[in-house]
Amino acid sequence: MQSKENKVDQEKIKEAVRMILEAIGEDPNREGLVETPDRIARLYEEICEGMWQESSEVLDKTFTVKDAEMLLEKDITFYSMCEHHMLPFFGKVHIAYIPNGKVVGLSKLARTVEVFARRLQLQEQMTVQIADAIMEELKPEGVMVMCEAEHTCMTMRGVRKPGTITTNIVTRGVFKDNEMLQNTFFQMLKG
Ligand code: ZN
């Protein structure tokens, strides 16, 4: 991973995009394309922003609560980039955790998702990183994260039908192997 000071090398991206355009037989100097390398360079600065952020900075402000039960933040929208094809995958993340005295503002969970979504990713890896960050920072009794995503590298290329959703779940702490807690998660998700 690059250091905080060392952000996207815009000139390198511009050069690379011009090369891709030439390689597919395009004219990088035609009107519609002349500013494309510059646009893409700025775009990457934004969609890879998570590389220079730490989830520990997002989750550092906690509140103390006694006897809190399961908290669920559902339908956190995210956009990420598949690291195998550098094409977008996007969807929703649902996060539940059982606090051990410490909770965070709900917007912080959405910000945590952003930190891990805004970089080249794999769905399973992103879900694990979100769950582990919450375990690490909040030290809850347990956490359960569900991710539902559409991968344009699959739907655009016609391997699967458009709209196909890939779903995965990561459980940590008391959620692991606890069917009752997992069912409560699914019921809260529906409700
Ligand atoms: Zn892919």
What are the key terms here?
7 helices; alpha+beta; single chain; elongated; 5-stranded mixed beta sheet; two-stranded antiparallel ribbon
Tally of DSSP helical segments: 7
What are the secondary-structure elements, in order, as H or E? HHHEEEEHEHEHEH
Helix content: 25-40%
Bound molecules: zinc ion
Task: Give the overall average pLDDT.
Answer: 93
Globally, the shape reads elongated
Care to count the β-strands? 7
* Percent of sequence in beta strands: 25-35%
- The spatial strand order of the largest sheet comes to 5-2-3-6-7
Largest sheet: 5 strands, mixed
Structural class: alpha+beta
Poorly predicted regions: none
Oligomerization state: single chain
Task: Work out the radius of gyration.
Answer: 20 Å
Cα distance, first to last residue?
40 Å
Structure explained in plain terms:
With 191 residues, this protein is an alpha+beta fold. Helices cover 39% and strands 26% of the residues. The chain is built from seven helices and seven strands. It has helices at 10-23, 36-47, 55-58, 106-117, 123-138, 152-155, 179-190; strands spanning 62-64, 71-82, 88-98, 102-104, 120-121, 142-151, 166-173. The strands form two sheets. The chain has a five-stranded mixed β-sheet with strand order 5-2-3-6-7. Strand 2 (71-82) and strand 3 (88-98) form a beta hairpin. Helix 1 (10-23) packs across helix 2 and helix 4 crosses helix 5. Bound molecules: zinc ion (ZN). Zinc ion is lined by residues 82, 84-85, 87, 151, 153.
